[in-house]
Design a protein that fits this description.
This protein is α+β, with helices and mostly antiparallel strands. It has one domain. 53% of the residues lie in helices and 13% in strands. It has 3 helices and 2 strands; from the N terminus they run ββααα. It has a two-stranded antiparallel ribbon. Strand 1 and strand 2 form a beta hairpin. It is elongated.
Length: 75
């Protein structure tokens, strides 16, 4: 992990190396099934899905790698 300039946020942000990204990406993909299941069961639009709760394991691991508390689970 290294800190690099992010053009979207206009500030330095932690950038994952390939191994770290693979780990976070796997946790992100693992969250997709619960999102789809919730939306199907509740006929809910995506904005009603509690993404922060579903992606909590991914966000926690990201924070443990980077020391940065991300609050937006979507790329």
């Amino acid at each position: 992990m290294q800190w690099l300039w992010c053009w979207r946020r206009k500030s330095d942000m932690p950038m994952l190396d390939e191994q770290e990204y693979a780990e976070i990406s796997a946790l992100f993909r693992a969250g997709i099934a619960p999102v789809k299941e919730y939306r199907h069961k509740n006929a809910a639009p995506q904005k009603r899905v509690r993404l922060v709760e579903i992606y909590a394991p991914m966000l926690a691991r990201y924070e443990s790698i980077t020391g940065f508390k991300e609050t937006i689970p979507m790329p």
